[in-house]
Structure formats: C-alpha cells, structure tokens
C-alpha cells in the first residue's frame, strides 16, 4: 500500500511539472504568433524593412514571464517566422541577402545577451529569496534559542530554590529548637537530602557541558550487557517503590556481549528507567526487555506514563527540552537525562529511539547496541578452588604492620575556612589531630612543624597553589612517605594528570562524603605505615 501511494505521488508530481512546463513554453509560441499577426498588419508600410524588430518584444516578454528556456524558443521561432514571412524570397527559410544576415546576427546576439541578463537577474532574485527565507528561519531559531535560554534560567532558578528552601527552613528550625536529638536528626536528614539533590543538578549540568565540548571518554571493554542492566535497576528500583509502580524486567539467561563502558551503560539505562518512572503516575507500570538479534542487542523500556505528541519524538533528546513546560513543573528536573542517554548511546555506536501513540498513552524507548563479534566464553570457578581460597590465612604478609596508639596527624589546606573547619571537626571526632592552613606557603610551614601523616589539600589556593606546594613537599626527604590528597573542584583528565605529576597520591573532586574521604585517608595511612615499617 505504501509503495503504491508513493508511486502515485511521483506520477502526480510528474504530471504537474509537465503541465507547468507546457504553460511556460506556450508563452513563447503565443507571443511569437501575436508578433507575426501585428507585423503582417504593418507589411504595407514596412514591406521588407525591419523584419526582426517586433520579434525582440516577443523574446523579452517570454524571458520576463517564463524564463530563459522558453525565451530561447522564442528566438528560434522569431528567426524562422521572419525568414518565412518577411524576408525575400517569400515563403522560404533561406536568407540570401547580406543585410538580412547582418540583421539576423544582431537579432540573435542581442536577444541571447538579454536572455542571459534575465536569467542572471532571476537567479539573483531566487538567491535573495532563499537568503531572506534563511534569515527568517535563523531569526526564528534565534528567538526559539533565546526563549529556551530564558526558560532554562527560570527552570534552573526554580530547581535550585527547591532544595535551598528546606535547607533554610531546617536551619531556622534548628535555631528555634532547644537542640533536641530528634530535631537535629530531622534537620540532618533534610539538609542531607537537599544537598544530594543540588549535587545531582550540578552533575547533570557538568555532564552536558562535557558532552558539548567532547570531553567524555569511555572505558571500553567486552562486557555482558546484563551486568550494566542489573546495575541500573539497582540504582533506580527505589524510585519505583516510592511511587508504588510495578516494574517488570525480562532479561535473557545467556550473556549479551557488547563492547562498552559498564558504568556509562548503567548510567544511560538508569536515566531511561528514571525518566519512565518520573513520567508514569503512581501505581503505573514500567517494563524492561533485553534481547539480541541480527547482530544487535536491544533494550526496550515501556511505560504507562503521560506519553508524548509526535512533534516531541526528536526534540526530547535536545538539552533542556521537556514535555512538561508548565509553571507547575509537576515532574521537575532540568531536562538533560535523555540528552545524556542519547549522547552515550552514540558514543557506543548505537541508536536510541522513542515511540508513543500520543499523550496519555505511554512511551517506548529502544536502545540498539552492536553485539561483540567474538564473544567471550564464560568460565566458572571450581568449588574446590573457592574452598581453597577460603582457607587462606588473612594475616599472611601483614606482620610488617604495627599499631600506633597515638592519634594520626592530618593537615587540612583550604582557603575556604568554613569548609576547612567543618572537615577539621569531623576528622577530630574520628580520632585525628588536625591542623589548618589557608595557602601553599602556610601549608609547607605547618607540615615542617606538625609533621602530619596525611595532607588533604585544595588546588586553587591563593599565592602558591596546591600543585607547587605538593612539588616542594615532595622535594624534601622529610615528606617522602607522607600521603597527599588533592580535594578540589577541578576534575578533568588534565587536572588529574597534573595532580599526579605534582606528587599527589589521590585526586578527589568536591563534594565528597566524609565517610568516603575518611576511608581514603585510612587506606592511604595504612599503606604509609607499611612502607615506613619496611624502611625501618
């Protein structure tokens, strides 16, 4: 049916073009006939004089109305008509007289030049129209981009105010309360949740920025896609439970081998599942299907949510575009989750598409990834190997570790005194002796005096930055085994390389949960003690 309709449309278009061209060339024939009739009326007075003069008018009229092709036909018809009717010998196409040949030559040359000028003018007119149309389109796009910018700024302000409001309210509650344990616990939970929300907003913005600048790198390996799917489900299953949504997954028993980044594949799948949960009402359902065929792995996510109109099918993958643009902002978010998912799929040489029967009828997102051509063969550990591993002496090789009763010494270097003091209180509550420094020079002086085992240092310090301070510390034999941690807001690959070259043992990007930071410090401190004991 579609093929027949397409052929019929092509036929109709051909008929329209043929009819249009017949009309154009008919102008040349009609104008030439008018000139022949009028020249015949003037024949008693003109006789054989000026046989081509009136035919100039037919050529110019045709060129102006119908274009260069019909005008050339008018030149030919005018030449033949003048030779046939007005140049002796009569009723003959032969032109024998020299004056008539000269007139014919002038007639052809002048009219050809005129036709070329008309054609050039027509091309310039069309070019001007195209440019005008393009300018209108660019103006419309610019207005749309400006509108999106304003909407995004308003959206960003809205999303940032959302978590800030309860934080301020919580602090006000804390000030008014008598410091009861229950109040402190509630305030801590609220502030923690809203801070995590702010971090997610910032991470989304930074992620989109990295995509736009092409700074995303994948750690590609051969992996079982099912592992990434399971990771994604673990990340998002809490959202389904919170809204009492039914979630069903159908994953094959056999491995689905692809080349990709496990973390990024889990991220994009979690984005799609989170998007499905967000736009599906409470008690709705979301289904995930995984299969493989024709050299591709397919991940399909169906939901019973709000659906979308046809015009949103491609636009929703653009940054900051959402189906819900109302002031109520029922669904929240910045509108970058699908953009990130789309970019990640493209980096994996795959495709992401969406289908919906319309608003209120749910949506279906389909991820297509190329399968690995030579999949790995799964191997299983023999149970005897597992049992043998379980009998290893965990104390083997640990005799060099000695316990240190005195608290560990830690130096915090940050020009943000509020952040530094907060970390100092947290580390002191964990049994550390802590000193503070606000710049690189003070950090070196404090390190020489205090002799810390671990130094946690910001990079963007006034005067001497963290890189230079680390280099100078590493040049001293007193700090050979001191562990240096860079705790900074700079997190690109280049920043990590610079930190490593300067002598930092670890590079962490703010904000970092304190428990995570404490574990890093303890792990590095344990390694330092082992090295020191071995040297001694």
TrEMBL record:
One of its GO terms (molecular function) is phosphorelay sensor kinase activity. Residues 155-373 form the Histidine kinase domain. It comes from the Bacteria. The modification 4-aspartylphosphate is found at residue 458. Its EC number is 2.7.13.3. InterPro entries: CheY-like_superfamily, HATPase_C_sf, HATPase_dom, His_kinase_dom, HisK_dim/P_dom, HisK_dim/P_sf, KdpD_sf, KdpD_TM. The chain crosses the membrane at residues 22-42, 54-81. It catalyses: ATP + protein L-histidine = ADP + protein N-phospho-L-histidine. Keywords: ATP-binding, Kinase, Membrane, Nucleotide-binding, Phosphoprotein, Transferase, Transmembrane, Transmembrane helix, Two-component regulatory system. CDD domains: HisKA (cd00082), REC_2_DhkD-like (cd17580). GO terms for cellular component: membrane. This is histidine kinase. The lineage of its organism: Bacteria, Pseudomonadati, Planctomycetota, Planctomycetia, Pirellulales.
